[in-house]
Amino acid sequence: MPERSFHEEVQQLRVGKGEVFEGEGILAVTKALLQSGVSYVGGYQGAPVSALVDVLSDAHDLLDELGIHLETCANEAGAAAMLSASINYPIRGAVTFKSIVGTNVAADAISNLASAGVVGGSLIVVGEDYGEGSSIIQERSHAIATKSQIWLLDPRPDLQKVVDIVERSFELSEASNTPVMMELRIRACHLSGRFEASENRRAPMSKRSVIESPVFDKNRISLPPATYVQEKLKIDVRYPAAVDFVRERKINEVFPGEFNDIGFVMQGGMYNHVISALRAIGLADDFGNSRIPLLVLNCVYPLVPDEIEDFCRDKKAVLVIEEGQPNYIENDIKALISDAGIGTKIHGKNCLPMAGEYVGAVLIDGFDKFLVRSRPSGLDSKSAAVAVKSFQDNRRRAAELLGGPLPGRPPGLCTGCPERPVFSALKLVQEQVGKVHVSADVGCHSFGTLEPFKVGNTILGYGLGLASSVGLSSMMKRPIVSIMGDGGFWHQGLTTGVANHIFNKDEGVLVLLKNGYASATGHQHIPSTGSNSRNQTSDMDIEKALRGVGVTWIETVGSYRIGRMITALKRAILAQGKGLRVIIAEGECMLARQRREKPAAAARVKDGKRVIRTKYGVDETTCTGDHSCIRLSGCPTLTVKSNPDPLRRNPVAYVNDGCVGCGNCGEVAHAAVLCPSFYRAEVIQNPTFLDRTAERIRGTFIRFMQQRQRVVA
Ligand SMILES: O=C(O)C(=O)Cc1c[nH]c2ccccc12
Prior knowledge:
The chain is of the alpha/beta class. The protein folds into four domains: 9-248, Rossmann fold; 253-401, Rossmann fold; 420-592, Rossmann fold, CATH 3.40.50; 610-687, Alpha-Beta Plaits (2-Layer Sandwich). The strands form six sheets. The protein has a seven-stranded mixed sheet, with helices on both faces. The chain has a six-stranded parallel sheet with strand order 16-15-17-18-20-19, with helices on both faces. Helix 14 (360-374) runs antiparallel to helix 15 and helix 16 (419-433) runs parallel beside helix 23. The structure holds 3-(1H-indol-3-yl)-2-oxopropanoic acid. GO terms for molecular function: indolepyruvate ferredoxin oxidoreductase activity; metal ion binding; thiamine pyrophosphate binding. Keywords: Metal-binding, Oxidoreductase, Pyruvate.
């Protein structure tokens, strides 16, 4: 089961016309898709739109009733390719994935789709994973839209607006025969709110109302000479049609203010941040009314020239608020204003930083710079400056009180994670065979590159650990050890990594971490889970797939068996000349396992049944306080506490109550011949008569021995 279940929330997707829908951004998007009459939906999970894929999966009964096909895709390329259904047929569809990395994976299909053009509305909902909460490369989706000439919507984060923009997207797509992309930033995906719903619409063509005969149109094939015509169509027909639609349907919004000789033009997605920053310096009220006129671009590509000109014409200065780089929108607006012969001074990245998320404090600094440069009439520049200064003083004071920067908190593996012992083993085996280059991959295991393991020299993309090793492997003295999760394996790694490695007869070691899910994105099911998102069993198996493409050297080791893992790694590393050696490290994701087992154990305890929980601990009198166990583990429950011995000052290691009893700390201590201070305890709830009797006997014996010790002492 994925990390979050939306079984209750999806009931709201049935609400009808005039009813109020309350919930999260991603649920609102789903409802808007149903109201738009889509025939098919799909996607590949990734922050911040993982939960959108989960919502669609949890809503599969309703989707079925409406005749909507749902596909949980192998990767983003597969998801984008689904939109081909709308090239020849007037059917609407939507797919979702994260950007920018997911959009990169999808780029081939997006280019082909954009060139062929569509007759049915096609929407790509991208999670714009940019800024301080992001997990990936800092790039924008804007370039993807402009280079393929597909339209980019960036709705103001308000659920009614988001729903409206989804519905308009399909109309825009159909009016301009072009797929549309809608970017949702991290915070917008998880924004809660309400909107007035309308009825879900059944599509005229769907799996409940099938297409009688296929359409063939050679002009829709992406091959020359059609591709030459398609490029001309993009420029001469589709682009102007999109501009007209955006203008006529008033996709962008103007909010008047009182200081009319200045204004802000912003990406729609920036609106909430801008308003709260303005409010903090007294330039917006508590209801979100700005005193500075605003042009909010819910469509950031294409721009509507006359809208921009009309907004700017009577103003002496305008600030463009555009997050990330390069400053595409600002440069386009400068060109438009210059071509129109308008004298307005356009500011942007000269006041705001070129890179990084525009959080409140960043915006306030930028507004300050803009107001100083533009000197709007009627605004008491002193009062704004005073507000800005008091805000900046507070920040400075907070920094002083902290006395220094806060310690960094790199992400790490969860308590009991089956990947931790594998990284401990990889660290330990290098003491025996020498240092190896480790080619890391995307997934939870990418945290193996950070403290305390620091195992992993490069990361090149999802499922690309093995593929990225082959440029270097023939030049390395020792084999490269590549890492791949089962998520990455099915997303990309089987073909680009494994098959290609065998085909080229490359040398190397692959450690395949099989935890059963796409864990980092929220435990979505993958072929090696054993069932799909609808819980239909699947009989797909990594080992069979490996053998199918010609891998013969395969060893499966339980993830927590560090001694065995070291032996297997050593064997694989030393088997030079044997091609690809694969070690499958098998151990279910502990987070998923705990989510399943904890409620079951709690229910058994409640029923009065006997339940045993294993917990590890450190004998504080034996611990020397050198903390080598912590350096080889990084388990969040393995921490320190004051040394109870008044003669020793080093804090001792300590296992807190979060321990799930995976046994890694003890195994590591044993494999590394570290120290004998780890013990394993069994915590018995609802003990039986036998348990109590055994406990009494043990207690009596221990007390007897302790008394003897005191006598001897
Ligand atoms: O969900 C995330 O944060 C990820 O980075 C995972 C991910 C999903 N699709 C991808 C495509 C390329 C690289 C990473 C991912």
